[in-house]
Amino acid sequence: MATRVGSRTIAFTDGPKISSFAAAVGKKEGEGPLSTKFDFIAEDDKMNKDTWEQAESALQSKAITLALEKSHIKHKDLDAILAGDLLNQCISSFMASVESNVPYLGVYGACCTMAEALAIGACMYDSGALRRFAASASSHFCSAERQYRFPLSYGGQRTPTAQWTATAAGAAIVGDTGSIKITHAFLGQMVDMDIKDAANMGAAMAPAACHTIATMLQDLDAQPSDFDMILTGDLGNVGSELLATLCDLEGYNIRTVHRDCGMLLYSKDQDVHAGGSGCGCCASVLCGPVLREMEQGKYKRILFAPNGALMSPTSVQQGQGIAGISHAVILEG
Amino acid sequence: MATRVGSRTIAFTDGPKISSFAAAVGKKEGEGPLSTKFDFIAEDDKMNKDTWEQAESALQSKAITLALEKSHIKHKDLDAILAGDLLNQCISSFMASVESNVPYLGVYGACCTMAEALAIGACMYDSGALRRFAASASSHFCSAERQYRFPLSYGGQRTPTAQWTATAAGAAIVGDTGSIKITHAFLGQMVDMDIKDAANMGAAMAPAACHTIATMLQDLDAQPSDFDMILTGDLGNVGSELLATLCDLEGYNIRTVHRDCGMLLYSKDQDVHAGGSGCGCCASVLCGPVLREMEQGKYKRILFAPNGALMSPTSVQQGQGIAGISHAVILEG
User: Å from B211 to nearest chain A CA?
Assistant: First the structure.
């Protein structure tokens, strides 16, 4: 059974374990500082498909398949797949699993979809409703760019605060075996500070990230130093600096342990401006280097609290603020 | 704790109860056969907002607020809101709850989003992670029409198999009090029979509806007559006839107890062709007449198994098949 600690944190008495994980990324991501930690790097971002949307879907499918192989199981051994992505009506995720014949739950938390899938799945596992599930998420620069911003061929200039949508996918298989345990989950609330610049997602999401992290630390009567890493994604360098400042105001100095997936995925010379973004960014960084190094004993306890910006091109054009949200899970090695 | 019955059905030992519910609909829906069973009928579908998207959001917000009032509670008394809609990046749902300061889980199952929210929420309640939650969904003819089909002012002709996106929203408050219990949940799988006509959603969804209904009946060793109603949504008249035929082939005659929200919401003279559709259709029919009449004792046991079509204009334009999905819950009065 799950119990509630403090105001909102959900604690599992015997939480589910991550039995395997895999990350599949695009060419640019495979040339970055984490290149050796991914399971699959695409030679061609089109993945031999006719469209960018199908390519993203193939990337997510690849991540799920590789994660299943590492657990020596097949799709049919899953009780459910929980997945989401940035494309309209989340088509990338359903196309990735449409042939699986497995119960499918579409979830949407923008760039923190991976944490939402893990948090919901962990609660459902805890109830006995699921015995083993896959959580996955993806994004693709080319499918996102033309949906959210400009035609690819337009080659528009990007502002310094803009982030680069990662061509990447991650998947984790969660059940009753594995060396990494999900001990806690946190369901984030929306925080809207009326940021209206879609090219400054870091500023839009930092307040929600702070809300989740500070509330969890209060609930658990913990300090940032109780974690080997507080992993956000994808605040980029603008949002990360804002988050650290906001956490200072709450009385928590997170600077030593804070890492952001959007800042880890690319090197400075890869011209991604404020950093990476997209559902696949934190999914691939988690299911690539982070869980791998956790399995190897490098980290004992991680607070995985990625961040989503709730908006669409329509809502931005209509003058709505961009609300941030941050779902989270605590992982113990 | 939840247990699994048969291959996939989830049974709750002490399932959550629906403590209150409300439905808010547009003008056309308020002129239909269910008009007296809704809590709110808009005089103007624009809901005094500047845009159709904001109007849809206001309708969902109205449904949630009215449902909360009936339970004599406020937003802050909820552990989470689970919601979704058809708009790109599900903006209607998050805009409806952005000021709630309540944990928010975006879910996406196209027109069966309401059942997905209830099923996930019930499992999370069962684990102890949630003590009380709201499940809600919405759609709006004007926001959907221009996103999925044609500019509103174009006034395009519609085919006989086409359905009419309902301007409607429904919300249910679920927790430990109330006279209607969620006894079982079922997570649907995608079924893609390669239907590519976006103006024939009934045909695209009927196979998934049959899969869910037949699997549940097998799992529970039950017959259709064990239910006062098997409620789908939104197959319309084309999909409903297909569903009955497909169920015949599985050995189940559902014709006597089957009702479809898409066929209940409008009268034949309202010119909606094959019937209603949209996330708000089954949400408002459930949270309007159905739960109301169940509370009054008219129904003892209902299988609520609405249906979603997983597609986007992009996926259809790219020649992808439209996969159907059907999540379900069993309700006992």
Answer: 11
